[in-house]
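Mods, move this if it's the wrong board.
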Amino acid sequence: METLHIIGGGMAGSEAAWQAAEAGVPVVLHEMRPTVGTFAHKTGDFAEMVCSNSFRSDDDERNAVGLLHWEMRAASGIIMTTADRHQLPAGGALAVDRDGFSQAVTAALRAHPLISFAEGEITELPTDGQWIVATGPLTSGALADSIRSVTGADSLAFFDAIAPIVYADSIDRSIVWAQSRYDKGETEEEQKAYLNCPMTRDDYEAFIDALLAADKAEFHEGETAGYFDGCLPIEVMAERGRETLRHGPMKPVGLTNAHRPEDKPYAVVQLRRDNALGTLFNIVGFQTKMKYGAQTEVLRLIPGLQDARFARLGGIHRNTFLNSPTLLDDRMRLKARPNLRFAGQVTGVEGYVESAAMGLLAGRMAAAEILGRDLPPPGPETAMGSLVNHITGGAEAKTFQPMNVNFGLFPPIEAKGGRRGRKDRYKAYTDRAKESFTLWLDAQG
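Not the wrong board. Structure tokens:
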């Protein structure tokens, strides 16, 4: 039987390898780490979480990301199965112990009898054999050059910023309090999954002044800052207007200061637990490109973090993605070389879950082809189907940008019996998607 080769052991590559091997196809997983490192990665483990430890909302009835979780669980995806085993309380979101999670994915892949491994960097797109390219947003320069030469089109670039992580014992608990926004979550632990740092108006104005004045990382020659709006650095948001952060990651709504319940904060900075031990917290939505020295000074202006020690400061790196609507077919194959499939963030999806979901589809599609079958994508009314439809033709190629899954990518729902409320409409989307996705799975036997 033909072997499937996969380049990249991130979320997409790990999921693709698992799906293909579970279908009975032998897999070789090629990963350049730790032989060749990247700016953002710290280990050689598979499915390492770089930007955050959150898979976002786990609500599969009224949230498109939660629906994607449901579909991946239904398809026995290794990413979601492992995430569930390493879950941390996060007030309705699915957050994990990032080290335990990636170590468990690595162990499962290495234990699979049909998966073997090859270390080292691949610098050229292969000309024969069945391959999935899942190199992610940090595709190496040599391979990116090879992709450009084969496609005849430049890969597009945007910048993805990493949020800082704080040691829990350096947070002033006399100032911060534990509460999830609007007390979300079914258990008390989930309802108190976040730590909240309150700001007065004077605190906020001083913070914005310092943020705007702080030294920022310089871009390399020839690079342009085309940020993805879902992951904007805080200083870029502040530059768009002094109140922007207060209506974004620093919004004070849905929270009551447990120490001073009569005082309404002007702004709030939230911290989310980053590991199972509860020794690390990341600053939610605080991706930044400030230089390290400036970060320490500015972030310690946040009440409760005046003595903060940082396990990791924020950073910024270049992300590469294809203009997929012009380059890929609906089986995620490169039109110029149909033996090559692409999966993950390099295709222009944004987020851990979306990347893994594209890996899941690519792995199943490649395995089906090797086994002599054709596997169409799930319908566009499903979360996975809406994403693959978007990146392979649903998006406008001239303005193509990375996209998280959202109900705006789904075919509209016909309202019955009058206008639906938003929650009822979202439930109708997810009900329809689950039925369609189940039929897609059942058809595979």
